[in-house]
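[User]
Um, C-alpha cells okay?
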Amino acid sequence: MGPDAAPVALLVFSDFQCPFCSVLQQNLKRIRERYPDAIRVEYRHMPIENLHPYAFDAALAAECAGDQDRFERFHDALFESQDSIPSEQWSAFARQSGVADLATFERCVTSRRFDTQVKADMAQARTLKLSGTPSVIVGSTLLGGTPSVSVLDSIVRAKVPSVLPAAGGRRQPIP
C-alpha cells in the first residue's frame, strides 16, 4: 500500500482480528495521510489462529479482493468492522470495498486460491522469529509493540529529512 518508489518501507505482519493490529492500522493511516509520497506499507499475513479463528480466512478473502485491486479498501473495511468479522460474509466486505466481480471473488475465496501465499507469509514470520502481531520492521529494525503515530513520524523524518517543516511551518516537497 502506498507508492512503490516511497523512500520509507514498513514491513507489517498483521492479523485482521487482532485489536492491536487495528490500532496500528489507524496509526499507519494517519501517518500515510501526513506523508502520502513517503511511505509504503508491505503487508504480510500472520493470523494467530489459536486466538483469532477467522483471521486466516480473512487473509484469504483480502487477497481475493486484492486480485481485483481492492486489497487496501478490503483491509480497511475489515479493520473498521473488526467485530463483525465472524458474523459478516466476506462478500459483504467485498461489496463495501468496491470489488467489481463478486462471483469471481466468491470463487477465489471458496477455492482458497491464496492459501499458499498466506502460509508463505506465516512462514516468513516464523523465520524472522516474530512472536506476535502486529510486528513492524523498518530496514533491519523490529519496532516493538504497536508503534504510535509519533514513533512512525520520527522514523519518516529520520529517513526522509525533506519532509521536515520548512521555514514558516510548511513541509518541503519530497523530491
